[in-house]
What does this fold into?
Amino acid sequence: MERDSDEDLVRRIAKGDNLAMRVLYARHHLRAFRFLQRLLKDEALAEDALSEVFLDVWRQAGSFEGRSSVSTWLLAMARNKAWSALRKRRESALDEGVAEAMEDEGDDPEVQLQKSDKGAAIRACMEKLSPEHREVLDLVYYHETSVEEVAMIVQIPENTVKTRLFHARKKLAELLKSNGIDRGWP
It folds into this structure.
């Protein structure tokens, strides 16, 4: 079963196969959780949304038409759950404590501090972008999703994704430059 394609697993899930559901979850839960966590900025909300996504997979597996990959289908559902949660809860805060607690053991303390400061500044600049721009940057650069897949997930034309990426990168570069951040790490 571990060698079955995602599409085969979804077909089996549609027939009520619990093992297929566990395999699909094992393959995709971490990627979907990280995506949700970046959108929601709240671990508990991301966990709740992830549970809802896979509950929907169980319920809606029979309606999967294969017009996109299973991973794209999952991320689209995750995005919809995240936006619903954000509409319900407008106030969300970035948990910088978790990000700052992560250390690169290969760097000395001074380099670590510089990276931590730069990382916090980059996150602050990202937060100044519109939600639409943050979303496409996150999908393309953090989740390595293609423009075509982003278009399916966000439900906009591919050219709109490209335009948003262009403007998001341009705006982020301006924000970084105004904060004295160059392109590389120290």
